[in-house]
């Protein structure tokens, strides 16, 4: 994955239209059916080539909701984000 929406998501919808590659789906279409929005890891490009930082995280009003996660092979990713941050716990915007 590239970025991940965690279970503190309040399903406000602020992120979904910000994604340049339509990687985000709403709570109705979340395959985990957990009431949160969801990022498809095979679509997310960490906004490389689109924005200076992940646009979803910039738009999200819930502190710490969107976190870094592991890179998917062949997907664009931000080189400056090390493995130490790709733990599914470190917020994209702190
Ligand atoms: S980081 Fe960018 S490409 Fe990835 S889900 Fe968020 S807005 Fe979409
Ligand atoms: S902006 Fe944040 S809180 Fe709102 S739906 Fe997206 S991830 Fe959830």
UniProtKB/TrEMBL annotation:
Keywords associated with the record: Iron, Iron-sulfur, Metal-binding
Pfam families listed in its UniProt record: Fer4 (PF00037)
Annotated GO MF terms: iron-sulfur cluster binding; metal ion binding
InterPro entries assigned: 4Fe4S_Fe-S-bd, 4Fe4S_Fe_S_CS
Keyword Transmembrane helix: no
Gene3D superfamilies, alphabetized: 3.30.70.20
Domain 4Fe-4S ferredoxin-type positions: 1-29
Protein's name according to its UniProt entry: Ferredoxin, 4Fe-4S
Native organism: Helicobacter canadensis MIT 98-5491
